[in-house]
Each structure stands twice: as structure tokens, then as C-alpha cells.
Amino acid sequence: MRFGVAIPTCTEGMITPIPFAGPDDIVALAVEAERLGYDAVMGNDHLTTQRYVRARWDEPPSYYEPLIALTACAAATSRIGLMTGVIVLPMRDPILLAKQAATLDRFSHGRLILGVGVGAYREEMEATYPDRREAPRAAWMDESIQALRLLATERRVDFEGRWIRFRDVEMYPKPAQDPLPIYSAGNAEGSIRRAATWCQGWIPAAIGPTRVADGRARLRAYAAEAGRDPDAIEIAPQLVACIGRTTEEAEAHFRASQVYEHLVSLQASTLKGFDVSSYVSMNLIGSVAEVVERVERYREAGADHLSGLLFVGDTLDALREQVTTFATEVMPRFRD
Hints:
The chain is an alpha/beta fold. The chain has a single domain (2-334), classed as Luciferase-like domain (TIM Barrel, Alpha-Beta Barrel). It has 13 helices and twelve strands. It has helices spanning 23-36, 51-56, 66-76, 94-107, 122-128, 137-153, 189-198, 208-225, 247-255, 258-265, 279-282, 288-301, 316-329; strands at 2-7, 40-43, 81-88, 112-117, 156-160, 165-170, 182-185, 201-203, 234-235, 240-243, 284-286, 305-311. The strands form two sheets. The protein has a ten-stranded parallel sheet. Helix 8 links the parallel strand 8 (201-203) and strand 9 (234-235). It is globular, with a radius of gyration of 19 Å. The N and C termini lie close together (7 Å). The mean pLDDT is 94.
């Protein structure tokens, strides 16, 4: 099984306090993750501050563009994968994104994993692109992924969609990887279908091993319909991780954290209908023994890569301590 660390590119005011981490801190965390044996680091994506963050904090958060941040991480590392978690496609021009992704993949010698999704906050898309207010984000996702795939593989590309159109685009160099790994993120049925039809991976978030297994079965059915090998599509859940000496210590640390406050905010969007109190049992929150047992349950459910683990820590030192504890106490038990 593979493991990844979420780096704080766009986390201030959401899962971390304001201020939290600067550029040097982000790069240093990637370097440390590589030293500890993690397989990837993951940067998230926001362009403007959400309303609930503005209401809670007097100071605006610093959101660092993830592809540029990952480029800095690439220059300081040599092995670790560079993952976006996730690029919000309805806020991105697919031609420019394809060029950026190919360039980063070339400069990093084939280490990019492009996680893409609709985004947790529709308000963010409407603020940055008001002309797209009426655009269904799911349809935008479908067209964007298809456009990205064509631009990454074909010599010249025409694309005629409902929302995305371009003519005779010849884009070189292509990514170092063929195919460029594109992962569809999200818990909705459409996210699973996109992963099975066009992508190399699926990134569900905090849905528990049972639903991961159910999603895996549906993914395999969609892949068969599309004439694709389902075993070639990775399942890479993103989870919260918080290890304590005891169950009670870990749960108390989690519930007092900014991560917990962020999950409460997502009940109105990507985690609609979920009880935040159930996250403790679905995520990697507990003693070392409990976390090991939950990782095993995810592996049995079909997870290949626990990507972009959101380690609980309201200071950089606390976050680094969690990253180190997981690497030394949990990861060695799942290395083949």
C-alpha cells in the first residue's frame, strides 16, 4: 500500500489556523515526507477565500497555487510523487492546465499525479468566474477531463463541447508519463464514473471502508462498460489522520482541531448528509493499534493508496510529529 501527505498549500482558515505555513515550510515538509518514505505529497487548490472563513478569521488566508508549490517541492526532492488534491476544474482553463501539467511532469521526471474535482464550494467558482454561474459543474468536469486527456496524447486537437471549445491546438512537449495519471476526486456517482471511463484513479474522501468497497464494485462495472481494465484504476482515499497514545487522547485532539471545524463546514457541500461524529470511526483517528486496524480495513476494501493524508496539527510542529509517528509506527506494517 502507498501513503501520501497533504501539504498546506491552501489550508489556512480551513484545516489549519491563520497564519500557518509559508513557502519554505511547505517545501521542508515535502522533503521530510520523502525522507520518511512517503510515496507522494498532495497540494489542494483554492483561488479565493470562502465566506465562512472570512466570517471566522480577521486575517485573510494565504492560498498558494498548488502546481507552482509542487514545482518548488520537485526541485528539492528526487523521488516522491507530486499530487494535486484537487485541482478544481471548473475554475481552470483546460489548455493552460494541460500545458502546466505537462511542464511539471517533464521537470519532475514523471512524478505528477493530477487529482481533479468539482470543488467543495460552488461560491468560489461563482466569485472567480461569474459567467460560468449557470454551467453544471459535472458537465464541466466531463468535458475538461476529456480535453486534458486529448491534449496529453494527440498531436493536434479540436474540441467541441457545450462549455469548452478550441481548434487545432498542437501542444508539446507531452507529459513524461504516458498516460499522465489523472484521478477523479469525489464521493458522488459521477466521480466514480469519470474515474472508470477516463482516469487512472479515484479519490474518495472520508467515506469508510464499506463505501469504498461499494464504490470499487461500481467502478469496476463502469470500467467494463468502457472497455477498460478495472485493475489499472487506483483507489486512493483521502482521510484524516490523528494518532494518540490512547483513543481518548486522539479523539480529543481531533475534536479540538481546525480540521474538525473544516469538516463541519463541508456538511453543506461535499460531505452533505454525514454526521461529523462518525468521522472518528471512518478515519485514522485513535491509538497506533487502532489506526493500523483501520488501514487494514481500507486495504481489504480495495484501497491502493491512502493519498494526501490530512494530519491533524494546529501548529507545524504538531503536524510534523503526526507525520513522523505515522511513518515510523504504521507504514512499515503495510510495505510489501
